[in-house]
């Protein structure tokens, strides 16, 4: 028999639109964070064991309900129904620079690419793949988002292929001048 707390955590998982810590569930249900985490692990294990179309994932102590990775093509086909636009080559190049050099400014990205990238950066931000991540010297810093990781199907940036040594050092980029 499923406990009341488990049933309620399943309901909360369904309505949470971003990963949350076990304390979030614990405070809503008046249970300990450890009890909430145990229930979350139990749900995740059961979903995995029965091959559910849903999975509960934990990353950095935060939990969220997702559609099963193996079903992503089917889910995307229904949700996007041909409306998805692929990223342009310029957007992919810009995204790669941000991913490997984050946090970085627009001018640093432009210096690596050799062209102005303001419009591409705005597009990537609108799609939720990059976001402002502070400032340095009056310039906005940009980093990739959790959506970027989800779209690539990876848990962290550490899983990206080791290409960073092929890119110029940030100090070299800054020495070449500020592009805007």
Automatic annotation (TrEMBL):
GO biological process assignments: cell division; chromosome separation
Pfam families: SMC_ScpB
Statement: the UniProt record of this protein carries the keyword Cell cycle: yes
Keywords: Cell cycle, Cell division, Chromosome partition, Cytoplasm
InterPro entries linked: ScpB_csome_segregation (IPR005234), WH-like_DNA-bd_sf (IPR036388), WH_DNA-bd_sf (IPR036390)
Highest taxon of source: Bacteria
PANTHER family per the UniProt record, alphabetical: SEGREGATION AND CONDENSATION PROTEIN B
Official protein name in the record: SMC-Scp complex subunit ScpB
Phylogenetic classification of the source organism: Bacteria, Bacillati, Actinomycetota, Actinomycetes, Mycobacteriales
């Amino acid at each position: 028999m499923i406990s009341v707390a488990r049933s309620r955590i399943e309901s909360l998982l369904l309505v949470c639109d971003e990963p949350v810590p076990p304390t979030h569930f614990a405070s809503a249900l008046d249970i300990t964070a450890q009890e909430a985490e145990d229930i979350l692990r139990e749900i995740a294990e059961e979903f995995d064991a029965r091959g559910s179309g849903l999975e509960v994932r934990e990353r950095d102590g935060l939990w969220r309900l997702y559609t099963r990775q193996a079903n992503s093509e089917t889910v995307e086909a229904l949700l996007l129904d041909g409306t998805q636009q692929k990223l342009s080559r310029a957007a992919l190049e810009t995204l790669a620079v941000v991913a490997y050099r984050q946090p970085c400014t627009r001018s640093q990205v432009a210096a690596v690419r050799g062209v102005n990238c303001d419009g591409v950066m705005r597009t990537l931000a609108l799609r939720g793949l990059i976001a402002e991540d502070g400032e340095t010297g009056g310039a906005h810093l940009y980093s990739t988002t959790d959506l970027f990781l989800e779209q690539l199907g990876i848990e962290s940036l550490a899983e990206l292929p080791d290409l960073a040594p092929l890119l110029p050092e940030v100090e070299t980029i800054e020495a070449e001048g500020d592009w805007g």
